[in-house]
Specification:
22 helices, 4-stranded parallel sheet, single chain, 640 residues, alpha/beta, rSAM_sf, 35% helix, globular
Length: 640
């Protein structure tokens, strides 16, 4: 049965809202397929505004992989701003896709990518606008299966009531497996209805169906267990790991936004995973092992993507891009290949110990020379040992001196505040480091127009990391330390005018902490906040700390727990954690031992270049580290 576009009803509303272009679709490389000629239909959602969601690599990759299947249709949907939400409710316009403007409620699957927990309320808005019941148990065969993925899905328990299914880890092969399950179930006449479809997903062992698991709590409020409540469902659910990234060269046709977006560039993921072992970094822990693309594979992706998109900047993405075993050959080869074309290259923040001027020069050869970004993360040597960020102040000063001597004029440094065992003095050392950077820069460059910007975020302990047991620092302490840091910087006026300081207060971080380590009881808080008007909690102008606090008091305290219980409380080794039944491959005992090493200020090397430390991922997941060098070179392009 064909599904009609809602655009005729939507079009008259668009002149009344901000940035209407974000809702019209039609981007270069977008796909619109005939509904009736397809068997399985996906709506893919990034639960934030179009300008944030469109550049998201994960959604873009899955969109392309699914649409390559002849009988599969995939379209995109994003969170609508409150101005359009109000008009949609008044004029009975449902949540829609931007490709075909079809109602989201008509699709087989609604796949949601959670990069951050602060997008949870936006999913509830989309479900409600789509006419999909908020709770999974209330949905019928006529409603889409609501599937979550992304880094935040590694603890989906706060959203368990609202999700039908969860995929942990890489999505490329997972979405094709799920598509095949739906295709077969439909071909057989939909036997057993929605429950049988979900059961077929669950029995694969790597798709988590929350409603098929029961939880209970101890009299003290701790989680007692999470266990299956039916047959054909595994005790533990494992993550997916895509090996041989060269076999998955996506996106081949990058989407080009119509409206301004947060990243105006084409991006290529040059490797996945990280084994640096930074204890605060959930992304590094849950994406192990390291899997590099080959230099030839990267070159092919860059060439094809630039031809398909017309972008003039290429982002070489990963968690630590300068760690690619052939990064020098990649950057030189790309700079040579695109010399004279105004095609610039960029890396995310670079590790101090992986930086060299040759690399930086290649990155800026064809594009503009921007500032350099480094992430020491901790201000003092002591706190960097705690978090396993093995960068000395001497390394940093040596690196920035070299950069300033070679013509750079500004450096940005990323730090965190509120780290485990942190003291005021650890934070004040950030000021000392920034001042030393300015002094070194002036000396190396022989001039005074040197800039250093320090950017500071509040630390949030995350699941599947050694810090998953740590107490989160309360917002008042974080804010107090940041005030002291500002005063310490300003104490030397001759240097202070060259140091910029950007930071977020500690309140949003506390709510992120509640959502990242919460259990199913926190779902009541999320719904309460949403019904009270909570939207776009990742945006400062929309976030309300008081709304979250009052919701937590109303929903959690009658259950004998609280906001502080979930955030500022340290966990013990024996406590059952809400995500213990979800297997990221990391051995729980290894994580606990690494937590103890952190408290003892003991560092751990990168297992890419040293013997294995038995984190558990490779044997558990049947994977292995895949790194070069391949010894190949990136050849010039030859016209055919």
């Amino acid at each position: 049965m064909s599904v009609e576009s809602v655009f005729p009803k939507l079009e008259s509303l668009l002149p009344k809202v901000a940035k209407p272009v974000q809702y019209v679709g039609g981007e270069l490389n977008a796909t619109v397929k005939d509904w009736d000629s397809t068997t399985v239909r996906w709506a893919l959602m990034y639960p934030d505004a179009y300008e944030v969601g469109l550049p998201n690599q994960g959604v873009m990759i899955l969109y392309e992989i699914l649409n390559e299947q002849p009988d599969v249709l995939a379209e995109r949907t994003y969170a609508v701003w409150p101005d359009l939400e109000k008009l949609m409710r008044e004029h009975d316009v449902p949540q829609f896709t931007v490709d075909g403007h079809r109602p989201v409620g008509a699709f087989d699957m609604l796949g949601v990518s959670f990069a951050t927990e602060l997008g949870y309320t936006n999913l509830l808005t989309a479900l409600d606008l789509a006419g999909i019941p908020l709770r999974a148990e209330d949905r019928t065969e006529d409603h889409p299966v609501v599937l979550a993925g992304g880094h935040s899905a590694f603890n989906p328990e706060p959203m368990a009531e609202f999700l039908d299914a969860v995929v942990l880890g890489d999505g490329e092969e997972a979405v094709l497996d799920i598509t095949e399950i739906i295709r077969t179930w439909k071909a057989e006449g939909r036997p057993g209805g929605r429950i049988e479809l979900l059961t077929r997903m669950a029995e694969r062992g790597n798709i988590y169906i929350p409603r098929f698991y029961d939880v209970d709590y101890t009299p003290e409020g701790e989680l007692a267990y999470t266990r299956p409540n039916r047959e054909r469902v595994p005790e533990r659910v494992s993550k997916r790991t895509t090996m041989d990234l060269d076999a998955w060269p996506y996106p081949k046709q990058p989407l080009v936004p119509l409206a301004e977006s947060v990243h105006e560039r084409m991006s290529v993921e040059i490797f996945r995973g990280c084994t640096r072992g930074c204890r605060f970094c959930q992304a590094g822990m849950i994406t192990r092992p390291v899997r590099e693309r080959t230099i030839e594979g990267i070159g092919e992706m860059v060439n094809r993507g630039l031809e398909a998109s017309g972008f003039e900047e290429v982002g070489l993405l990963s968690l630590s891009s300068a760690d690619h075993s052939e990064i020098a050959q990649i950057t030189k080869g790309l700079a040579d290949r695109y010399e004279g074309t105004q095609t610039g290259l960029s890396l995310p923040s670079t590790r101090v110990d992986a930086f060299n001027v040759d690399l930086a020069n290649e990155l800026s050869r064809n594009g503009r020379r921007s500032g350099l970004t480094f992430a020491p993360e901790g201000g003092s040597e002591r706190i960097r040992r705690v978090i396993n960020k093995m960068v000395s102040e001497e390394d940093l000063i040596r690196t920035v001196s070299t950069a300033f001597a070679n013509g750079w004029r500004q450096v940005k440094l990323y730090f965190m505040c509120g780290l485990p065992t942190e003291t005021d003095e650890d934070v004040l050392q950030i000021a000392h480091m920034a001042k030393e950077v300015i002094r070194a820069g002036r000396k190396a460059a022989g001039r005074n127009d040197i800039r250093c910007t320090i950017s500071i975020g509040g630390f949030v302990p995350k699941p599947h990391t050694p810090f998953q047991w740590a107490a989160q620092t309360d917002p008042d302490t974080v804010d107090s330390r940041l005030r002291k840091l500002r005063a310490e910087i300003n104490a030397d006026r001759g240097l202070a005018r060259n140091i910029g300081m950007r930071y977020h207060d500690g309140k949003p971080s506390l709510i992120e902490g509640l959502l990242s380590r919460g259990d199913r009881r926190v779902g009541k808080v999320i719904e309460h906040v949403w019904r009270d008007g909570g939207r776009f909690d990742g945006w400062g102008e929309h976030f309300s700390f008081d709304r979250w606090v009052s919701a937590a008091q109303a929903e959690l305290e009658p259950l004998g727990v609280s906001l502080d219980w979930f955030t500022t409380r340290e966990r013990g080794e024996a406590e059952v954690l809400p995500w213990d039944h979800l297997d990221s491959g990391l051995d729980r005992q290894w994580l606990w031992d690494d937590w103890q090493d952190a408290l003892d200020e003991q560092e751990l090397d990168d297992c890419r270049w040293t013997p294995c430390f038995d984190c558990g991922v490779c044997p558990t997941m049947g994977t292995a580290i895949e790194v070069g060098p391949t010894g190949k070179k990136l050849l010039p392009l030859t016209p055919v």
